[in-house]
Amino acid sequence: MTNQDKLNPDHERILSIDFFRGLTMFLLVSGYGQLFNPVSSNQIVAAIGRQMDHAYWQGLTAWDLIQPFFMFIVGVAMPFSFSRKWAKGESWSKSLRGVLRRSLLLLFLGWLVSSETKSSFTNVLAQLSVTYLIAFLVMRKAIQWQLLVSVILIVLTDVIYRVWPVEGFNQPFTADHNFGSWFDIFLTGGLSEDRWVAFNAIPTTAHTIWGVIAGTILMKDYTPRKKVGVLLIIGVAGIIAGCALGMYIPVIKRICTSSFIILSGGYAFVGLAVSYLLIDVLNLKKGTAFFAIVGINPLFIYLFWHSGGRLVLMNLTKPVTNRLFGWISPDAITIATILVVSGMMWYICYFLYKRKIFIKI
């Protein structure tokens, strides 16, 4: 019996999944990080500001968790989606053809929204095109086999970085002098300005596979509290293991080192467990719809943001906020603009939600 045979295809929609995905996407596109100056004289503001941007190289900030969380939550939704299709009689081969088309389209969209840069394959959509396909190929296997595949991908990446023999690109944890940098030059002819590497798609596949495992746990015939307990145990174990490994392998998001993958994966499990506990177990649903509405249309909001939609809204808003708040300070203009634009972006998602328009591929 496969892992999927044990699942209930008629499982009710879990609101915490939409909330978790929506919160992740809203933080990604809202621009709230600009509200906190990392070099502010106010220590609290400065501390928050440092967490609202990526670590320059080594280390982990809250902002570094956004992309792993998104990869993870895509995986969480996969068992729900495919179990319903298979219950209706769709064959695995037909599902595979759909996954291949979706992966190619994700790759194309990822290239399209960053086609003016040499880092065309480092954005979330391009990375997801790889992680989604691999996660699908193993999702009907038993959980232990899925875990084994994820560990192999992480270890394989770590080994390649360490043994890559090309002079100048054989320093595994040095910026612009590692295997990932060499691979980008081979693939696109240049390096990413921000030091992200396209090869990250291989180790970060673990995040999507682990999401599939988490989704499988949520669909199993466990009590709600047992589901929370299992997710929390896995998450805390991942955080402890990632921190321990970080003493020997630097935690570097920009090249997705093994310590970063495991540590961020642990946080993803804990984040989902807490969301599920609060929303679906304790029934604390007040206010969750705000983020869930964004979570239902994640592809739209990402493409809208990356294709310049947010910039258009900024340009429309600035003259108004400048007139209303310019007499106070430039910071007041920035704060008001960001709040208004994020509200406008949310309302666009709400408009689509009310009309049952869901952008999918």
Please explain how this structure is put together.
The protein is mainly α and 361 residues long. The chain has a domain of 249 residues. Helix content is 65%, strand content 0%. The protein contains 14 helices and no strands. Helix 1 runs parallel beside helix 12. It is globular, with a radius of gyration of 21 Å. The N terminus is likely disordered.
How would you briefly describe this protein structure?
The protein is mainly alpha-helical and 361 residues long.
Helix content: 55-70%
- Name the beta content range: under 5%
The rough form would be described as globular
**Which residues form runs of ≥5 with pLDDT under 50?**
1-10
For this structure, the quaternary state is single chain
Number of helices, where a helix is a run of at least 4 consecutive DSSP H or I residues: 14
Number of strands: 0
Order of helices and strands: HHHHHHHHHHHHHH
> Which radius of gyration do the C-alpha atoms yield?
21 Å
Structural class: mainly alpha
Distance between the termini: 30 Å
